[in-house]
Amino acid sequence: MCLIRAPTLLALLTFSRVAIQAPISPSSTSAPDPASTVPYATTDPNYPLWGPDSSPSEPKPMRSSLGSSVLGPDNPQMNLQNPDLLAPPTTDNGQIGNAKWPFSFSSNRIQTGGWARQQNVKMMPIAKNIAGVNMRLEAGAIRELHWHKTSEWAYVLKGTTQVTAVDQEGRNFVANVKPGDLWFFPAGIPHSLQATGDDPEGSEFLLIFPDGNFSEDETFLLTDWLAHLLVIRKNFQVDEDSDAFSHIPARELYIFPGTAPENADAPSSPQGQVPEPYTYALSKVPATPLAGGSVKIVDSKTFGVSTSIAVAEVTVEPGALRELHWHPTMDEWSFFLEGQARVTIFASQGNARTFNFQGGDIGYIPASMGHYVENTGDTPLKFLEIFNSDVFQDVSLSQWLALTPPALVKAHLGLDDKTVSKLNKKKAVVVAPLKDKKDRFEWMMKLQDQ
């Protein structure tokens, strides 16, 4: 007979009681509410505290109980245009490189017949993959025959521009490009630009180059090259005693006056014309209507030669929003055509920053950084999203959540079934203002009274 001593028996009974009372390992359905581990995020819309038309005395680096007035030197006009930099939303945090550059800050190259100003990585260090040029030509003025190491994409802002080009096979191309239309020249293809007489003021356009280090001053120009050659007559088989080629400019012309072209007829070429046009009539393409605006998208699927630039022309109604999204692999270079906007960029690790934009401003958002574009004015907002890519791509936050298992979404965000069911399984692109406009109405009235 086995005898168990009293101390040993007591220990066994104690162990058994502890084992029976031990908690069962929690299942996935008993996961703690997110609120038990972190506080709730704010739902305050953090509207801008003033607008570009407010009184210069209104801007102060203060929001609610935070901040204080400026006692030293200040620039009120800059503050009026950038309310969310001076008085950031409470959701802003950390640092992001400056994602805004007004063309007004760029040095202007003034010529007889027009001007040009540029933005590249020297002005805007965050913009590593795309550079832009804003150019104006008076009626008849010519941007001289030239070519680039990179491709050139353009959007006409005003007036009509005649473009000419000849490809490496000797096939030529001539066309007139109207406001809202595009052109694209592959890298190394020689071309020219000239304002027609359609508009007595000439033309103005935006040029895009898929290289943040691009400089307009490093263009290969016809006159610059020929002014530095010793064998011009030999190359063109001209007699030494001929005065042909004796009036070549001693330095580049770049932009110079000319006579407006009478037509857009190309000289006859034995090789024929280019197989695909270098221009695209975007202005004639119907916009896709959306709940809060509209969009037109052009990439190599619709504009075949545009193999390195894709674009979305977006219109957002007052109070509406270019939905929360990001672009997986390509940076976004934005150009604001009209209206007022604010953009918050999320760069991970708690870094988020809000910028304000008006017509003529450039924005830049590195790949995969989440963002939105909100119309903060009382007129339509129109802007371009431009990418160094052959195809336009974006990821919609709402669509992502709608197509993810609901239980997973609810576990992250604490949403109820009704809210989850309303998530859009198709990209909205632009979403309408909320039906309850009371807060925004009071905000707009406040700005108008300032």
From TrEMBL:
Cofactor requirement: Mn(2+)
Manner of cofactor binding, per the entry note: Binds 2 manganese ions per subunit.
Keyword check for Signal: yes
Segments for region (Disordered): 24-92
Single GO molecular function: metal ion binding
Keyword vocabulary terms for this entry: Manganese, Metal-binding, Signal
Any single GO BP term: oxalate metabolic process
Compositional bias (Low complexity): 24-39
Pfam families: Cupin_1
InterPro entries per the UniProt record, alphabetical: Bicupin_oxalate_deCO2ase/Oxase, Cupin_1, GPI/OXD, RmlC-like_jellyroll, RmlC_Cupin_sf
CDD domains: cupin_OxDC_C, cupin_OxDC_N
Residue numbers binding Mn(2+) 2: H325, H327, E332, H371
Location of the active site: E385
Signal peptide boundaries: 1-21
Residues in Cupin type-1 domain copies: 103-244, 280-421
Binding positions (Mn(2+) 1): H146, H148, E152, H191
Record PANTHER family: OXALATE-BINDING PROTEIN, SLL1358 PROTEIN
Protein name: Putative oxalate decarboxylase
Top-level taxonomy: Eukaryota, Fungi, Dikarya, Basidiomycota, Agaricomycotina
